[in-house]
Amino acid sequence: MSAKSSQGCWGKQRMDDQAQVLRRLMEKKSYIPENPPKSTRIITVTSGKGGVGKSNFTLNFALALQEMGYRVLILDADLGLANLDVLMGIRPKYNLYHMLTKRISVWDIIHESHGIQLIAGGSGLSELVAMTEKEQDRFAEQISLLHGHVDFLLLDTGAGISEQTLHFVWSSDETIVVTTPEPTAITDAYALIKSAAFGEGAAATSLPSIRLVINRITAEKEGRQTGDKMHLAARRFLQMELPVLGCVADDPSVVKAVKLQTPLLKAFPNSRAAKNIKDLALRYTSAAGAHAQDKPLPGVKGFLQSMMTWMKGADGNKLR
Ligand SMILES: Nc1ncnc2c1ncn2[C@@H]1O[C@H](COP(=O)(O)OP(=O)(O)OP(=O)(O)O)[C@@H](O)[C@H]1O
Ligand SMILES: [Mg+2]
């Protein structure tokens, strides 16, 4: 493997960039982002195989961004087994379903914990396609209010190649695919990425922007090898770049935090996995990361437009 093609676990950011940001974080309690996002950036977090750590990653990545001064909202978009509320130790009174059926506003279904805002999905998303056009329009109207309300909207999805997950990928500004180094997880992640790039419904002109997070690594070498394998396969067979955003250690603190129903970054901020996620978030927001682009993002409006076009053309069974 040539050094050039190596993705590494820790990206290409120079160490001094990281040190600079860390120093600033220590100097100020509240960190004002240097390159504030111009609009709400929508990031889908997904995986091929289930149970690889998407929800824990989403939650703690959100916290890491929030600690840097960004405003973050998570939408639990796992239609089958939504459980972010459990990981956050909260019991949301209302979810998306209530917004659709009880005619309450989007602000009523946002729950805050540890500075992170959460919209629980409930069965709301799966009800959407069966609703009348008027009700779907009301949904779009409410969700569009979120535009600019937060800097990042993270969608935690279910695993696998379902039509709805692919539409989340195609409708969001970018996607993070989480995998572990296990061969089964890698194979499933690759299959998902292939469908996202070339499946029926993928844009003919542009490939979706996808980055990898390799979770539960036992050694840096393992993460590097996994990243290189996937990166080279994507380049060779899919003609797409598949950068590695970062790796997260296999760390018993994650399991402990889940049991405590407290996010890892709050329960064990100095654990290895927490540090990995904080580093990863720093790298994500660095000049080489998301905000270097000046062009306006499709954001919430683009997302809704794309999702609504699909839903209105759906036959009522697509989200079931
Ligand atoms: N870095 C890690 N180190 C150790 N254990 C981990 C790590 N990440 C996740 N886990 C374990 O994996 C379990 C599943 O994680 P999580 O619920 O985040 O996965 P998921 O991909 O969201 O699952 P699903 O596909 O069911 O939505 C956690 O409860 C925890 O026990
Ligand atoms: Mg999950």
- CA distance, first residue to last residue: 44 Å
- Mean pLDDT score: 83
Give a short account of the largest sheet: 8 strands, mixed
Shape: globular
- Please write the string of helix (H) and strand (E) elements: HEHEHHEEHHEHEHEHEHHHH
Task: Give me the number of helical elements.
Answer: 13
From the 3D coordinates, which CATH architecture would you assign? 3-Layer(aba) Sandwich
- How many separate domains? 1
Strand-helix topology:
Layout: H1 15-27, E1 41-47, H2 54-67, E2 72-77, H3 84-88, H4 96-101, E3 110-113, E4 116-119, H5 124-128, H6 133-144, E5 152-159, H7 163-171, E6 174-179, H8 183-198, E7 210-217, H9 220-237, E8 244-249, H10 252-260, H11 264-267, H12 272-285, H13 299-312
Parallel strand pairs: 1-5, 1-6, 2-4, 2-5, 6-7, 7-8
Antiparallel strand pairs: 3-4
The structure holds adenosine-5'-triphosphate and magnesium ion.
